[in-house]
């Protein structure tokens, strides 16, 4: 089998024109290197993707048959061609960066993403000056139901201009602010690439429909930062379709990323405007060592927060924002996927302060099977929805996964010792009170 990106390594034509972070690189073709905890899928051909989809369907069926309101996790690199994810991620990042550059031109540098509002008339003048479109040509861009009504354009308005519901392969030009030259935003896909993209979307649609039928919620796992913008955008499209009445599709946000809070707040705001239910799993992140090594070797900014403490701050900041949204609208749901006791305590305290009751099932917790039972069991006994993440598959594939998770959780043995001490104390308490078998 060839790895997810190694097939793309053969397609380096024109790669030098692409941003470093979103180029395929031979040295990182096998994405398992430096990855401790995450499952990495391989792309061999379309048939392999269909096999992955069938496996996911069996998992959804099993989850639906074994529990109410269960979850099933999927990875999008298992369902389609990663080169498409690289290309689409670059498009989304370039388009968003262009918005921020325009905001800086209008004196709004340094503001939070959702606080930036471009004056539509000045924006049209800038687009004309840069040679992207005449004022007459760009005028109809900002005359939709919501665009331009207030005379300003925010990031969500801007994103809607390249909404994936429009034809993605339409050639758009944006300026490279360093060279001041116009560059294509998106290279045209070949006919075969278009087919591969459509098949990927069809597989996602099949899984989402089966999950809805079975009463299972579908969690789309996060992956490397150079795939993640596309993964999040495609997941968002599924949320728009399937989260009208409840949160069926859950996106995953990695809080070790410097841009995590902006990503969360922008997507929550979109769910508010469009009226669907926001569903998310919050994790700290699983690709830190590989991400940092790749950024250093290839020469782009490290996307990861500088310290573990900064990642903790980011996690709690994102979590608090979602909990506030639950309080105000009850149209958001979050899985706190963490083995960190401080994070669990923070969540419980904020739920109490905000009046979010466990029975609402808007907040749930997740830990790995066999790890941190001293967190999982008390939460369950107290009435909180709590889930164990269950790996499955051939023994030779699952055991290495579990060993990597133990390695990732470097404090695992200390927690195991603590769990043993707690069990021993409870045993002695029951023995002394004569309630050992009650």
From TrEMBL:
What are the residue boundaries of the Proline dehydrogenase domain, all occurrences included? 120-415
Q: Which InterPro entries match?
A: FAD-linked_oxidoreductase-like (IPR029041), Proline_DH_dom (IPR002872), Proline_oxidase (IPR015659)
Give the UniProt subcellular location, in the record's own words: Mitochondrion matrix
What pathway does the UniProt record associate with this protein? Amino-acid degradation; L-proline degradation into L-glutamate; L-glutamate from L-proline: step 1/2
Q: Which GO terms describe its cellular component?
A: mitochondrial matrix
Work out whether the entry's keyword set contains Transit peptide.
Answer: yes
Q: Name any Gene Ontology BP term.
A: L-proline catabolic process to L-glutamate
Q: Bias regions of kind Basic and acidic residues — which residues?
A: 8-24
Top-level lineage group: Eukaryota
Q: Which SUPFAM superfamilies match?
A: FAD-linked oxidoreductase
Under the heading Pfam families, the entry gives: Pro_dh
Task: List the keywords (alphabetical).
Answer: Acetylation, FAD, Flavoprotein, Mitochondrion, Oxidoreductase, Proline metabolism, Transit peptide
Q: Which family does it belong to?
A: Belongs to the proline oxidase family.
* Role played: Converts proline to delta-1-pyrroline-5-carboxylate.
What protein name does the entry list?
A: Proline dehydrogenase
Q: Which organism is it from?
A: Jacana jacana
């Amino acid at each position: 089998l060839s790895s997810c990106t190694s097939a793309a390594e053969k397609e380096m034509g024109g790669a030098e024109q692409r941003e470093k972070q979103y180029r395929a690189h031979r040295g990182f073709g096998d994405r398992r290197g430096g990855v401790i905890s995450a499952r990495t899928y391989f792309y061999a051909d379309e048939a392999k993707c269909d096999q992955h989809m069938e496996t996911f369907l069996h998992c959804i069926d099993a989850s639906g048959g074994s529990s109410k309101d269960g979850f099933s996790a999927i990875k999008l690199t298992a369902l389609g061609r990663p080169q498409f994810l690289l290309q689409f991620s670059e498009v989304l990042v370039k388009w968003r960066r262009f918005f921020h550059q325009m905001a800086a031109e209008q004196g709004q540098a340094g503001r939070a993403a959702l606080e930036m509002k471009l004056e539509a008339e000045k924006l049209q003048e800038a687009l004309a000056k840069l040679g992207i479109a005449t004022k007459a040509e760009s005028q109809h861009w900002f005359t939709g139901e919501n665009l331009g009504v207030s005379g300003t354009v925010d990031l969500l308005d801007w994103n809607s201009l390249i909404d994936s519901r429009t034809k993605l392969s339409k050639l758009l030009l944006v300026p490279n602010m360093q060279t001041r030259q116009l560059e294509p935003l998106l290279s045209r896909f070949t006919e075969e690439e278009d087919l591969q993209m459509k098949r990927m979307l069809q597989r996602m649609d099949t899984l989402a429909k089966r999950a809805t039928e079975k009463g299972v919620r579908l969690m789309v796992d996060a992956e490397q930062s150079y795939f993640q913008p596309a993964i999040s955008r495609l997941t968002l499209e599924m949320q728009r379709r399937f989260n009208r009445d409840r949160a069926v599709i859950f996106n995953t946000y990695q809080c070790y990323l410097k841009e995590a809070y902006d990503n969360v707040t922008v997507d929550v705001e979109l769910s508010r405007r469009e009226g669907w239910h926001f569903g998310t799993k919050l994790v700290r992140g699983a690709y830190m060592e590989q991400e940092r090594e790749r950024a250093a070797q290839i020469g782009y900014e490290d996307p990861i927060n500088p310290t573990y403490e900064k990642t903790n701050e980011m996690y709690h900041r994102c979590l608090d924002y979602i909990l506030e949204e639950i309080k105000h609208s009850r149209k958001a749901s979050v899985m706190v996927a963490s083995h960190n006791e401080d994070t669990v305590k923070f969540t419980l305290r904020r739920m109490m302060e905000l009046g979010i009751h466990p029975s609402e099932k808007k907040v749930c917790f997740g830990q790995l099977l066999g790890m941190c039972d001293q967190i999982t069991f008390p939460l369950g006994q107290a009435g909180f929805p709590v889930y164990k993440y269950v790996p499955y598959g051939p023994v030779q594939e699952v055991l290495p996964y579990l060993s990597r998770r133990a390695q990732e959780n470097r404090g695992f043995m200390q927690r195991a010792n603590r769990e043993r001490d707690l069990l021993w104390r409870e045993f002695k308490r029951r023995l002394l009170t004569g309630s050992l078998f009650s």
